[in-house]
Amino acid sequence: LSCAQQDVTWEPMDMDGMRFTIQPNISACQYRCRATPGCAHYSYWSLAGNCHLQNSLSVPQPTRLFFVSGPPDCEDGRGSNIDTIKTMLQQTQCFRHGRTFEPLDSGMPLRVPSVLDCQSACAAKPWCANFEYNGFSQICHFTDENCTEVSIPTDYSIVGPAVCDGQVS
């Protein structure tokens, strides 16, 4: 496929609620991604035919031998649905990777399936100003306005405000 990347995966490896499947080839894996709401990338392990699907908050990981990855479709504008588009816009305009807050918790952490669920949980708390979501552990932390944003050496940590300005609808 013209848009595929060799030896690259997108991680976390599987979207919430999705398990890998065995597919006969890369094209079948790409088709599965295109047919799955919220899928922004696929990662295909050619040795066993494992097809993994990732959402738009996944991060590329190079040097993953025997993996081929890519978008839902090699033609721009195909294969996307409104949830994927909304999340991708929020990722670039509102969310930041590799960041956290100090102090981190003003309330009890919560396990949620996605960064959007974490943001919604923060917005539902009158005192919550910001959240931090760990895409690997799926743990959501909350902070009030008395915190400082700092950089940390991980791509799994995503921070953002309770509500994004210019919310996409």
From TrEMBL:
Gene Ontology biological-process annotations: proteolysis
Lineage, opening ranks: Eukaryota, Sar, Alveolata, Dinophyceae, Gonyaulacales
Q: Which organism is it from?
A: Alexandrium catenella
Tell me any Pfam family this protein matches.
PAN_1
Query: What's the protein called, per UniProt?
Result: Apple domain-containing protein
Q: Which SUPFAM superfamilies match?
A: Hairpin loop containing domain-like
Keyword tags: Disulfide bond, Repeat
Q: Which parts of the sequence belong to the Apple domain?
A: 3-74, 94-164
GO CC term (a single one): extracellular region
Among its keywords, does the record have RNA-binding? no
